[in-house]
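Chain particulars:
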Amino acid sequence: MREARLRPEFADLYPTLTPGQWEAAARIAEVVLARLLLLEISETPIQERLLNEEHFEFRGETPDGAPRIPRTSRVADRDEE
């Protein structure tokens, strides 16, 4: 199952989500979509990906079944994985 968690620095954009908490990515996508629709931002084109990779971290398999490799910003972090 693919999971996602909100990065703390973007918590103010998603007030109904708990930053740093891993949850099913599908559930988070539903929450984000519902918020967009409730705020009537639906006129804004929805991108190909509902969950912005800058705002969320992911783990687990992608929808096509391929393993998801976490992105890290530092080369030193990549060596520790």
In short: The chain has two helices and three strands. The longest strand covers residues 3-6.
